Amino acid sequence: MYKEIHFYESVSVCPVGPSIYLDWYRTNEAIENKEPEIHTMQMCLLSATLLHKGYRMYVHQHNGFSYEITLKSRGGTGDRSVRDAQNVYAMWASNIFREDMDIKRYEGI
Hints:
The structure is a single chain. By secondary structure, the chain is of the alpha/beta class. It has one domain (3-106). It has helices at residues 24-32, 48-52, 88-93, 101-106; strands at 3-8, 37-40, 55-60, 66-71, 81-82. Strands 2-1-3-4-5 form a five-stranded mixed sheet. β3 and β4 form a beta hairpin. The termini are far apart.
């Protein structure tokens, strides 16, 4: 069964159509109920566990750029591919996945 979860960094990039879970409880409940498509602003739930539960995981940045996070053990490659033991939320919080961070990393060095 195809499942996906979309994380939104900002209300400004949230789509109008689908229901968006704004709180942790309802988002977690949707995950536990194995809803096939989840839209949430609860970034704290970013986890490799969701990938193991069969979800494709997408992050929608405040600037409109979107990307998918994948598991290296399942053939994922590139900068947005994680290992099982990595803390995906901490990686997101430290801006590792950000598209525009490549420029910022080298400014002021």
